[in-house]
Amino acid sequence: MELLTKAPKGTMDLTPGVTEKWQVVEDVLKSEAELNGFSEIRTPVFEHTELFLRGVGDTTDVVEKQMYTFLDKGGRSITLRPEGTAGAVRAMLENGLYNAGYPVKLYYLTSCYRYEKPQAGRLRELHQFGVEMFGAADPGADVQVIALGLAIYKRLGLHDVGLQLNSIGCPACRKEYHKALKEYFSARKDELCETCLSRLERNPMRILDCKSPVCQEIAKGAPKITDYLCEECKAHFGKVQELLDALGIAYELDPGLVRGLDYYTRTVFEFPSKSLGFALGGGGRYDGLVEELGGKPTPGLGFGLGLDRILLALEEQKAEFPEPVRCELYLAAMGDEAQKKAFVLMDKLHKCGVAADCDLCARGLKAQMKYADRIGARYTMVLGDNELEAGKAELKNMQTGEKVKISIGEDFVDAYLTASTAQDDLSF
Ligand code: HAM
After folding, report:
1. Tell me: the pLDDT tens digits for 172-192?
2. Which of 120, 152, 397, 409 is within CB 3.0–4.6 Å of 402 for a Cys-Cys bond?
């Protein structure tokens, strides 16, 4: 029975009361992205597995250990997206979005799926807000994306979010670096975990990102990529820092930051939450990814922010959210005729965009008023035979207790709007 009544491990329901908070956060994310010229893209929740093998990289934890992969009934290998970038690149290419000119700026709000060990801030169904920019090689693009991420945290009131920054160079400067890493790790081969041992030949940089404490300790003494950057990568990174300085954005250089996905080149960054002790977001440049996935060589960059973690951080600091208005006017009715009238008036209000409700559970008047109170109705109106006969009913302000008689005839909506605004004005 538990299988029927419990959501799968690492997933959670978002229920009324919580969804409104998510909506507030999502509105901030969307509006900041749109301020910076990004437009929304929606891509399928599943893609061909090959996309992630090629895109994310087959030596990453995400691909090696965490993907939800299955054969569909047609025998195709399908994977639930573990992240949003690869799908965004595929969609950009498939839909020819580059035809409208560069830079192409996209944002998305999606669920992603990773088979992880669930714990605080680590879910199997996670939610990300991401932005991706294509066709902009300039360091200014890196800074716009980073500044956008930080502006979002600031607007949400999350003031303890930092910026960790590194450059992991390009394939040219990585050749020498890989050699140095192989040499360093080979000398301590016996201590490495099994996964890292298999990565030593294929992709030694991944060892720097291993979660095993022993490998992490060994990685501390490894050669740093920043000592191997080619002149172009060095100049790019220098310019990124110069622009961040010009914007007054503080950052911490972290030469050990390599990120967990293979597509990154040059600038990589994370947004750590000091109070929670983990990253609320991260991203970077991926100048080789579009070509890797079948497009023309095109620079790209972006970030993913964990929504679940943002909400956790807001909860942690007891952030206050505006109370959602679920009901402006509750129409309580006594008797069949009055109920019919309540429905007609409610319909009129809905057509004018006013949230209104009435009884649907055959409750008595007292229970209806109790319900109105529970849903936080701002006004109530009782309809009975007397009101129907008089063509007027009392509008009650539930906060102040003030009552005013208004028409329930043809001019009801106008009368309601005037009376309710007038009372709002009074309460100021
Ligand atoms: P990522 O660092 O794997 O990057 O994920 C981005 C953010 O998603 C993390 O910083 C974290 O806040 C959140 N996140 C990741 N895994 C989980 C999880 N299991 N539970 C809860 N939250 C999680 C990417 O996914 C890249 N696609 C970002 C990117 C976009 N880079 C360039 N463009």
Report:
1. 999 999 999 999 999 999 999
2. 397
